[in-house]
UniProtKB/TrEMBL annotation:
Name of this chain's protein: Helix-turn-helix transcriptional regulator
Domain HTH cro/C1-type positions: 17-71
UniProt cross-references to Pfam families, sorted A to Z: HTH_31 (PF13560)
Organism: Streptomyces cellulosae
InterPro entries: Cro/C1-type_HTH, Lambda_DNA-bd_dom_sf
Amino acid sequence: MTILPPDPDLTALRVTLARLRGERGWTFDELAERSGLARRTLIDLEHGRTTGSVTTWHALAHAFDVPIEHLLGPLCDDHAPPGTQNP
């Protein structure tokens, strides 16, 4: 029997990105310059048209100066994160 993990909360992921960008008052152009990512990529991430790669989120973590867990942690907002459930 195959046990699948719960679906990630992709909405929370893009909301976190939008919140961090908004808190800093950065435009997409400013975040693109700070992260080295394309403006179109950032727009697509924030609007949920793409989820990006680990490399993308790594660049964003550095641009925002936050641990990558801060960006990716919301993926588990609607369920218990791995390693936190009792066996």
